[in-house]
Known about the structure:
This protein is of the alpha+beta class. The chain has 2 domains: about 10-105, Serine Threonine Protein Phosphatase 5, Tetratricopeptide repeat, CATH 1.25.40; about 105-240, Alpha-Beta Plaits (2-Layer Sandwich). The strands form 2 sheets. A 6-stranded antiparallel β-sheet has the order 3-8-7-4-5-6. β1 (about 95) and β2 (about 100-105) form a beta hairpin. The protein has 9 helices and 8 strands. Helix content is about 40%, strand content about 20%.
Amino acid sequence: MDDQFPLPSNLSNRAIDASLEARWEDAIKLNRQIIKLDPQNVDALNRQARAYMELGKMTSAKKYYTNALKIDPYNPIALRNLKIIKSFKKSVHHPQDNGHTRLSPTLFLQEPGKTKVVSLLNVAEPQKLSQTYCGMNVKLIIKNRKIIVACANGDYLGVLPDDISHHLIKLLKGGNKFDLFIKAIKVNALSVIIRETFRSKRFKNQPSFLEGTSYLPTSDMITSLDGETDEEVLEESEEQE
Length: 241
């Protein structure tokens, strides 16, 4: 960066705050200023790419992550998110006239009995949350009779409330399958949408989720899980896939 054009001391902080507060349009404007003053600023390029991802503009996101890699070829954030962009299923997106790609609104469509939006507990630190985006596919990991939500690479994001965890473990053990996507991101807060993708014969007439229902474990659920390790439950659910 040319010393004649010093970066305003608070500009980066304002750009970071805009991202953490999910003000993506503001984040784009602020990061654009930083990149104009300092084209080699990898952090700003990554933030700009992430903001475009949040808005569903994957073509622009890919452009900025690619620019970041030209400066720092081994940058883990850019490498990971470019891989995510490339692996996105075409069915999740639809092209726009402006050349960008947006997340399909159907991704967050809530279907009675099949979907539920859940706020995670004990969420990861803001720095890690800042690397996620709306629509990001995440996975569940069963551990100590709880369900942990993690990135594809295993990085911890948060944990589901106990009642939802116990309920999902029972359904997974019975053969149901689910996809999880990030629904909303705020400072120190993260919510996911859980979508039933397969219902086993065992639960043929039983919706996975009921409005206003507390999913505290019932006595039969506790009995069915007694004596089984979380690994056994997880293995059984994976065998169904």
